[in-house]
Design goal:
172 residues; 9 strands; Rossmann fold; 7-stranded mixed sheet; alpha/beta; 31% helix
Length: 172
């Protein structure tokens, strides 16, 4: 199932222009709008997604991959709008792949941070967005445990949650 752009997509999209240079990866590309935005600033953009349907519909350089499973190279910017919601037993499996980050919501983000350091160039950056429903304290702890530092670019209140857009770099 292709994740249709929503508030989280538009929040992270507006920061791409400030950080998109060099080699860029859109992890979990979904509809492809973040990769398309990055292409305005760099010609070297790769879109990755676990869902074959998503990959088939993208009209840019792409790869089917469960996080970094099939990705060998390093990037100057990695954009990640992950599935971050806690598991909801009522949600169908097809849509859960695009929205659910694990039982508590942050498990996929933890996996991402364990793998991402091997895929960032020396001064590489990460743009990520997630929700207050994901457990912000747990995400912040995961970031620090994996030797990254973050800066909150924007916090946006919507309906029953807050969205956080972070810029991350490797800690010294």
């Amino acid at each position: 199932m292709i994740y249709e752009p929503a508030e989280d997509s538009f929040l992270i999209k507006k920061y791409i222009k400030y950080y998109a240079k060099g080699k860029i990866l859109d992890m979990g590309a979904g509809s492809g709008i973040l990769a398309d935005e990055a292409l305005k600033y760099s010609k070297d953009v790769l879109a990755a997604d676990i869902d074959q349907e998503v990959i088939n519909k993208l009209n840019i350089k792409k790869i089917k991959s469960d996080l970094f499973e099939n990705i060998k190279e390093k990037f100057d910017l990695i954009i990640f709008n992950p599935p971050y919601l806690p598991k909801d037993k009522m949600e169908p499996k097809e849509t859960a792949l695009a929205t659910t980050g694990g039982k508590k919501g942050y498990e996929l983000i933890k996996r991402f941070f364990k793998q991402v350091k091997n895929h960032l160039n020396k001064n590489g950056k990460i743009l990520i967005v997630f929700s207050s429903l994901t457990n912000k304290a747990k995400v912040d702890q995961t970031i620090k445990e994996n030797n990254f530092k973050f800066r909150l670019l924007e916090k946006k209140k919507i309906d029953f949650e807050e969205l956080y857009c972070y810029l991350l770099t490797k800690s010294a």
